[in-house]
């Protein structure tokens, strides 16, 4: 009986000692090299700024000019961007689908023309959306698939791929909150947003 207990204890100790965790070994030479590379990168990115001394009367004139320039850029840039955004057509999808419907192909072509002409100086963010059916995870994935399909169509028709980013809002960004089929259909879409 004692031999069974002793052999059981020895076996248990062997199993437990095999499961012990080891401390990770850190190669200090690699960390030193990495920190040196990071320091060199930071030093390269930080460049001295040239400055110039200006009299106080010139300073006030310069400040007024800068203020006027910035205000005109903000108002004209954001206004034109918002106006252009409204000209893009949202692309709608069937229930639980991410392929482009035939009635949406002309809208995509119109969006491509707009993206390559008037809105050519802006980047485009495609926002994938879903109705409220399905889990959050599923709807986020479906929204991203919808945005990806629209992106592929835009690129195929000539929009530069580096101008396009995608995001999925899943069911969290509805345009309609009624509990009807027509309302849910309005939420299955990809919207266009312009970025500077």
Automatic annotation (TrEMBL):
The keyword Ribonucleoprotein does not apply. GO terms for cellular component: cell outer membrane. Residues 1-22 form the signal peptide. Residues 80-196 form the OmpA-like domain. InterPro entries: Bact_OuterMem_StrucFunc, OMP_bac, OmpA-like, OmpA-like_sf, Pal. Keywords: Cell outer membrane, Lipoprotein, Membrane, Palmitate, Signal. Residues 48-61 have a biased composition (Low complexity). Pfam families: OmpA. It is a lipid-anchor. One of its GO terms (biological process) is cell division. Residues 48-81 are annotated as: Disordered. It comes from the Bacteria. It is found in: Cell outer membrane. Its main location: membrane. Belongs to the Pal lipoprotein family. This is Peptidoglycan-associated lipoprotein. It comes from Candidatus Sulfurimonas baltica. The gene is pal.
